[in-house]
Amino acid sequence: MAALGWLTPRRRSATARSVLAGEASAEAARKSTQDAQLDQPTAEEPQFPVHGDALAAAFFDLDNTVMQGAALFHFGRGLYKRKFFETRDLVRFAWQQAWFRLAGIEDPEHMQDARDSALSIVQGHRVAELMSIGEEIYDEYMAERIWPGTRALAQAHLDAGQRVWLVTAAPVEIAQVIARRLGLTGALGTVAESVDGVYTGKLVGEPLHGPAKAEAVRALAAAEGLDLSRCAAYSDSHNDIPMLSLVGHPYAINPDTKLRKHARGLDWRLRDYRTGRKAAKVGIPAAAGVGAVAGGTAAAIALHNRRRR
Questions:
Q1: I want to staple 64 with a disulfide (CB 3.0 to 4.6 A). Which of 133, 209, 236, 309 is the partner?
Q2: Beta-strand (E) ranges in 207-306?
Q3: C-alpha–C-alpha distance, residues 214 and 192, integer Å
């Protein structure tokens, strides 16, 4: 019988630390289950999208909603590879991208700096040239960063016979490349001025950001004869609350803290495709991990060394 002793539970008094560990584990499991339930559709939800509804469409933010990170920064990496600008500019792009991925939110100053840099870089280049390069950059840096979950949501709208647009502050040419490669209807994006097919280095109006996205969606819906109360919009950022509030079916995708709180307060649908609840809480996209931290640290060191010279 002694050989079967391992089958008999041993009574051991629980220490304070083991009790604490057990309680913490139980609480984490309970909260994880609650969060998962909040982020998943319930049995009571009606079927959506509605098949054959010609008056409905879907509008997707791009950065951190459809794709990990910022499209403009990935585009900058591709242009650097093609000798469009120098190493010091790449360091700035890398630092901004690392900050964006770790913070999970858009910093207006960083985004403005990135746009100004991009405009100066493309000035004097032909639109057709950048479109062609954009196709290559998509394959090199963007294709593998598309969130499968968000892609499936977009495909559901397409399968239902609805039109799907990207709505982004990224240059419209980049957005159009991504939309075409994903099989979407089209894209709304920031428009850079061009004369005779050559970029001037200026914008037409302002970047398509925040309230400007809502105005673009409103204008497109009017032109296309859409009923916004039957449309859906998807975003990760509280900056897009104006666009999300415009439609009848708003979704918070990989939401930042402010948008998650806002969405829960209004009972909006939530979807989080990032891995790990800790990542979901602080806004770190999947695959950020050690690579993004190491990349951001290297960029910071390079920037610090450059400033000391």
A1: 236
A2: 232-235, 249-253, 269-271
A3: 19
Peptide bond before residue 49 is cis, with ω within 30 degrees of 0: yes
Q: Is 63 a catalytic residue?
A: yes
| pLDDT at 207 (0 to 100) | 84
Dihedral sign from CA coordinates of 155, 156, 162, 166: negative
Query: What residue ranges of the chain have pLDDT lower than 50?
Result: 1-12, 32-33, 42-43, 104, 276-309
Say what angle helices 127-137 and 71-81 make with each other, to 10 degrees: 100
Q: What whole-number distance in Å separates Cα of residue 229 and Cα of residue 260?
A: 22
> At which residue do the structure tokens 């900050």 appear?
99
SS3 22: helix
pTM, two decimals, is 0.69
Residue 89 annotated among the catalytic residues of the structure: no
Handedness of CA 189, 191, 192, 195 (dihedral sign): positive
Candidate list 35, 53, 63, 113, residue with the active-site label? 63
Handedness of CA 281, 286, 291, 297 (dihedral sign): negative
> How far does the chain reach from its first CA to its final CA, in angstroms?
77
Beta strand pairing status for 198-203 and 232-235? unpaired
Residue 58 backbone phi and psi in degrees, to 5: -130, 140
- Cα-atom radius of gyration of the chain, to the nearest Å? 23
Per the residue annotation, which of 39, 53, 61, 107 is the catalytic one? 61
